[in-house]
Amino acid sequence: MASVTYEHVYKRFGDVVAVNNLDIKIEDKEFLVFVGPSGCGKTTSLRLLAGLEEITDGQIRIGDRVVNDVPPKDRNIAMVFQSYALYPHMSVYDNMAFGLKLRKTPKAEINKQVKEAADILGIGQLLDRKPKQLSGGQRQRVAVGRAIVRDPAVFLFDEPLSNLDAKLRVQTRAELSKLHQRLGTTFIYVTHDQVEAMTMASRIAVMKDGLLMQIDSPQNLYGHPANVFVGGFIGSPSMNFFDVTLVEQDGKLFVDGGTFKLATPDDRQAAYLPHKGRRVIFGTRPEDIHTAQYAAPGIVPAPMQAEVDVTELMGNEIFLYLLTGKKQFIARVDPRTHARPGEQVDLLVNMDNMHLFDPQTEKTLDAWK
Amino acid sequence: MNTNKANRFLGHLPVHVIIVTLCLLWLLPAFGLLVTSFRPFQDISDTGWWTVLSAPKGTADYDASCAACHGNDGKLITAADLTDPELVGRYPRSLQLMAMLRKEIDGKPHMADLPAPEAQQAADIASYLRRISNIENPPRFTTSNYVDALVGYRGTTTYAKDCAAGAQSLDLKCNASDLLNPRGMSRAFLNTLAVSLPATLLPILFAAFAAYAFSWMHFRGRMALFAVLVGLQIVPLQMTLVPISRIYAQLGLNGTFLGVWLFHTGFGLPYAIYLMRNFLGALPQDLFESVYLDGASHWTAFYRLALPLAMPAIASLAIFQFLWVWNDLLVALVFLGGKNPVLTYQISNMVTSLGGGWHLLTAAAFISMLLPMIVFFGLQRFFVRGLLAGSVKG
Question: What is the CATH number of domain B185-387?
């Protein structure tokens, strides 16, 4: 049980900066998820913490101890690999007991720990099997079990679910969350799947090109993305972005996209006023665009019109691929909506959840907190 | 459907024909050697191994010339019982037999109106008679060739006969100690074993260490060193015989097992390292990272993870190196010579200067083939066993 601190950590591979000035404090018992597209440095960050890669610059601390020069085995961490990395020539029991044996734990103690971990994960009946006799899901559990028995201060997960089929992944997600509550240990988890991040994390760190884009709770990350990348990366389908001009009319600020003109909410006027007359990026999520007919009550509606390009019925909702001018965007609308490709539809945009970003820095212009 | 099958059969036919031909090409001589090695030496010089199950030599001539009066079993005329060793013993050679046949018996020609046998036929009949009269009736198959080869018997009959007659040569004691006779194959077998086992194990052991280091330990110049080591494979063995022999002379290693072990180890290492490194390097990196995180040192990772997983590579390497050392004549001849003769050296001494001694040669060949065959069939399953299956999600 320990906190983990990255202090201005850099990792360079030749000319490539894989991790660029990573500076995070991860609290004890936190479930932190690194998320980002492939090559963003999330796995490298994890491997730096595990000691599998050497830090180029900066400091990593586990608890109060600086671990830069501590070998992996002495960092009191356990890691679950994407490939599970089970020892193929050992039984499940030996796989789980191996780390304890190397640490000269008494036999009875090993036996107890392995049995306990196996019970938690429901793999008690598999202890005598070899990894090749197990299914993907079972191997994944054994890999988790091997980490649990070590009773480490920090658990590291490197995309542990990406080799499972979709149904098993959903189930295992919930089990990992439960496991985190039960063990009360710091979990650090790497994934490229934002759904995994949103469902399990207590905090999410979004990375891109070695840079930390934003670190916050899932709710805040979703509701208040710090920049265009986070706004687009979190949420599916992703946020719509429009190049607009911020104009004033009748004492109110509007976002003017040429084919539409939407009023900004009253409580944002003060924040947006300095940017009056500028080109900005306007972001709105698909679920904040409603058809006029089935708009949710209690929103601050801003009307606009668009042409339907494609419709996708998902059952509980419809994805409308819409065109305004040349710009395509997506709306998640009520399934009762009748919209045929080529038709014009009347839309209401919930401007309460709108976002504005600076077109140069791509940082948010929303002032909150 | 049927035309498909027929087409496929025809398509594969050349392959099948080639495979069967190759098998026969190898199996037939080997089988001939095996049969020959179990035949008494008298038969070997008389007839080919493929006649081993046909009627003994002279049967046809006896049937044509003698069977009419003497009967098929030679006992029809009691006064001249051809199975009587005393009677047959009077005509040991074809000349005496032919002279006797020309004589008259009771005033009538011996052979009546039958044509008298030619010299060769008479010789065959004489040997047939010796066989049925039990004067000289060797069995069709005998293990005496193997016994003779094992103890290093070099006489004109067999070891067992000489010992029974007390006529053995000076270097044979006719007891178990003969198995250690320096001229025998059993002693050579032990010598070869003493050469081959360390000369197989040492390079594999060193190569495993080296391969682990080349694969999973990071140090400067790793690839360059590996390239140099692999490049050493091109050094021809013969080129080093003289220099190493001189060094060995200074160190007093000539004629010792240690010298041969070191030589084979040195020449086995480059290929062994190359093969082992490629195998170990292909193991998933996750496995090794996992084992380090589990608290393993390099040494633990080596013998708890790398070695067990490398068993297929070790097995194939062991087979190659063992067979090469086992069958090697050159190195053993140069560095051991006759001091501690090995199998190959001993076999080369089996043939007499006149090209005889086949019976010993064939038996010795099979003695020397025995262990390699056991090794091959014993370790063969390691080639096919996919030890890695299931370690990582594929």
Answer: 1.10.3720.10
pLDDT at B354 over 90: no
Ranges of each domain in chain B: 2-51, 59-132, 144-180, 185-387
Does B293 sit within 8 Å of A79, measured CB to CB?
yes
Three-class secondary structure of residue A10 per DSSP: strand
| pLDDT 10s digits, B15-64 | 999 999 999 999 999 999 999 999 988 888 878 889 888 888 788 888 88
Measured between CB atoms, which of A52, A89, A139 is closest to B387?
A89
Q: What is the pLDDT of residues A244-269, one digit of tens each?
A: 999 998 888 999 988 899 999 888 88
Largest CA-CA distance found in chain A, in angstroms, rounded:
80
Query: What is d(CA A300, CA A348) in angstroms, rounded to the nearest whole number?
Result: 9
List of residues 6+ apart from A244 with CB closer than 8 A: A255, A256, A257, A279, A280, A281, A282
Asked if A221 has any chain B CB less than 8 Å from its own CB, the reply is: no
Contacts of B290 in chain A (CB under 8 A): 79, 81, 85, 87
Q: Is A152 helix (H, G, I), strand (E, B) or coil?
A: coil
Q: Kindly report the pTM of this predicted structure.
A: 0.80
Query: What is the value of ipTM here, to two decimals?
Result: 0.85
CATH of domain B59-132: 1.10.760
- Residue B16 CA from chain centroid, whole number: 28
Contact between residue B52 and residue B140 where contact means Cβ atoms under 8 Å apart: yes
Instruction: Mark yes or no for CB contact A77/B284 under 8 Å.
Output: no
Give the C-alpha separation, B120 to B61, whole Å.
10
Q: What is the mean pLDDT of residues A95-120?
A: 93
Q: How far is CA A278 from CA A16, A149, A357, B191, in A?
A: 35, 58, 11, 94
Closest among A229, A178, A166, A165 to A35, alpha carbons compared = A229
Percent of chain B residues topping a pLDDT of 70 = 95
**Helix B358-379 crosses helix B311-327 at what angle (to 10 degrees)?**
170
Strand A186-191 with A154-158, pairing: parallel
